[in-house]
Amino acid sequence: MAENEKSPYVFKKSLQTPAHISSLAFGHTVHLFAGSDDGTLRLYDLSSFKVLRAVRGLGGEVTSIVCVKRPASEYRDVWLACGRKAFHFKMETSTMIMSSSDALSTLQPLGDEEDVLNELALDSSKKFLAFSADSGNVGVVDLSSMTISMMKTKHENICACVKFIPQRPSELVSGGYDENILHFDFQQRTTLSNLKIPQADSVGGMSFSPPFIMCTAISSCGLFAAGTGDGRLWMGFGGEKKPSSAPKKKTRKWNGLDREEEVLLKVVDGPIVAMAFSEENVLTVSTLLGTLAQFCLERNDKGAGEAKELWRAEAKITEKVNALVVNDTKIVIGGFDKDGKGIIEIWEKQIIPS
């Protein structure tokens, strides 16, 4: 569907920053966190578009942000990945501009001085923080003891993403530039299953873009998706937990990487760099050059998984996209514009009269 008067989302607002936007996260209600590649974090109020708090001078690109609810506060705490370190900040503070010395906790889980953190993830109990790294390693921090556990198997190239699996208290899944998805029991540090993204049909015997796994998303019901460097969307339906009135025996492990339940879809030419679920089966993706598309993941009459495209549009100002977040009413992307300035684009869902 082209963007027009019947489009479900319309461009609403842009916000500019001195440095490229590298990560985004929604906080409480109308709060948006934006990390930049100059080591800065900004917290925006989306009702006024003003900056409420900021962290500066972290010494590297803010590659990932995860929020933690603080009781009786409208401000979320945040964990940030920046270089080799992860920082925990309390945002409910009278200090408007903070630095690394204001962090509640600072972790340095990587041994190699050349290694850097990529994505952070927090489990539903808020007891464990997972991380992925350029070295291909995947690890988990027990936040009660600050004990760090590294998975026994690592990716052969950069590990871009890591996610905890909903309703599976000891399982997580990671994706890397080695084209592999790994599924772990993080308590045992062992691999439960794995899958390699197949190569696309080549032209003249040559594949122009390897299927690096650039981004992943997992829904509350266990649907899993991965975006590749060659513009394909991989979807796994095998781990989906379906509602049922009849009692059902719990499976031994999540089966989200089951080959018989996969769907692989060519979305665009060029890398898919960011994605997120807004509902348990509605997935929004963005390409590097700003093509936005939304899909409904569902099963057909024969029970096979499929993806129905709901909407597609092009970014208005963003030249290259680094991050995307979604909620019930908004799609927000971040990156940089044609002048090299950091940019945040906010798209809002329209209420279309029936």
Key terms for this structure?
single chain, 354 residues, mainly beta, Methylamine Dehydrogenase, Chain H, five-stranded mixed sheet, four-stranded antiparallel sheet, globular, disordered N terminus, WD40 repeat-like protein, WD40/YVTN_repeat-like_dom_sf, WD40_rpt
Question: Could you describe the 3D structure shown?
Answer:
By secondary structure, the chain is mostly beta strands. The protein has two domains: 16-70 and 78-84 and 94-106 and 321-354, no CATH class; 109-241 and 252-314, 7 Propeller (Methylamine Dehydrogenase, Chain H), CATH 2.130.10. 0% of the residues lie in helices and 50% in strands. The protein contains no helices and 29 strands. It has strands at residues 9-17, 21-26, 31-36, 41-45, 50-55, 62-68, 77-82, 85-89, 97-98, 105-107, 117-122, 128-133, 138-142, 147-150, 159-164, 171-176, 180-185, 190-196, 213-218, 224-228, 232-236, 262-266, 272-279, 282-287, 291-299, 305-314, 320-326, 330-336, 342-349. The strands form seven sheets. A five-stranded mixed beta sheet has the order 2-3-4-5-9, with no helix packed on it. A hairpin with a 4-residue loop joins β2 (21-26) and β3 (31-36). The chain is globular. The protein starts with 8 loop residues before the first strand and ends in a 5-residue tail after the last strand. 43% of the residues are buried. The model is unreliable at 1-5 (pLDDT under 50).
